Fold this protein.
Amino acid sequence: MQQLFENWRRYLVEAKAEISDELTEIAVNSMLAMSVFRDEKSLNEVEAEQLKYLVSRAENPDPEVIEKFSESLYAGERSGFLTFYSSEQLARMDLYLLDGHDAGFAIKDGDDIVSVHNNSSLRGLGSEFMRKAKEVGGARLDHFDGFLSGLYRKHGFVDVYEIYQWDEQYKPATWNYDPVDILNSDTSVYSVALDDMVYRDPGVLPNVETEIAAEDDFKIHINPNLKYNSYKYGRPDVIMRKLT
């Protein structure tokens, strides 16, 4: 996991000036979310009930909460280089910050869950943040295919409504991201479709562009062999999800 974060750090620092703001935002939010979900422990009911949130709403921003949220968001040892949202941008979101802890999330544009982060000593916050985010209106999110795919699916974000395929022009010179297992349903939206296409002898995928049904029956044209190798060498696609 340590190497995973170091590779993400390298990617974001070097690529930020080269890739679109949207892709940078997705990359930042993906890395922050991974740091929340890397601990599989979950809070028990009593622990969850003891949590209290400081809130700033887009229609009535609270400057104190905005400042605390910004400090919390970029408090971690790996977060300083991830600065993406300004205080002005945060003011236009609904912010939820755990009182007394550097951990929380935001709702952008009414229903888009962003800035899920945990730079505190607390553990097991992933499920709690997803529960709370959905309770207050969060209904969609985006991420790079991989570690987060199975986790978000478990929390009800099973409607895949868009996929941005990897574009090599956005790759920084020293890209070295960990491989993603495209045939594993926990790490890929393509797993079921491609598993059915694997030639048992010699065990390779078709090397021709074709339309497939990815997760949630999302229709997309890909070259299965090229896509397999793209994931193998750490170039996953961006997945847009929402609740059903």
About this structure: Confidence is low (pLDDT under 50) at residues 11-19. Residues 2-144+157-162 form one domain.
